[in-house]
Design goal:
The protein is mainly alpha-helical. It is built from five helices and four strands. It is globular.
């Protein structure tokens, strides 16, 4: 799995863009696979019942922010690495390649 290094990542921009179809994951943090799975999970959760989709969406915003902070600090992260444990536990049910580092 590829790793990402983006010291220019902006945590605030990542959080704001994640409010719009999770775009902060892919645009700011460069995590396309993570974006795809969080977006899919948010839509499925919203389709089944509004609350699960809302929870995944909020966790995704927080995760994008935390990941951008880690990138800004010079850390190298995986393309499908999560910074929020609860979101990781949800996504890992449908994506076995998800990893967590808090």
């Amino acid at each position: 799995m590829s790793t990402i290094r983006k010291p220019e990542a902006n945590p605030i921009l990542a959080a704001v863009l994640t409010c719009f179809f999770g775009c902060g994951h892919v645009v700011v943090n460069g995590q396309q696979r993570k974006w795809m799975f969080t977006l899919l999970t948010t839509f499925l959760g919203s389709w089944c019942c509004f609350l699960p989709g809302m929870i995944v969406g909020l966790l995704s915003i927080f995760d994008a922010y935390q990941t951008a902070l880690r990138l800004q600090a010079g850390e190298e992260i995986g393309e499908n690495e999560y910074s929020v444990e609860m979101l990781y536990k949800i996504i890992s049910k449908i994506d076995s390649t998800a990893t967590f580092k808090g």
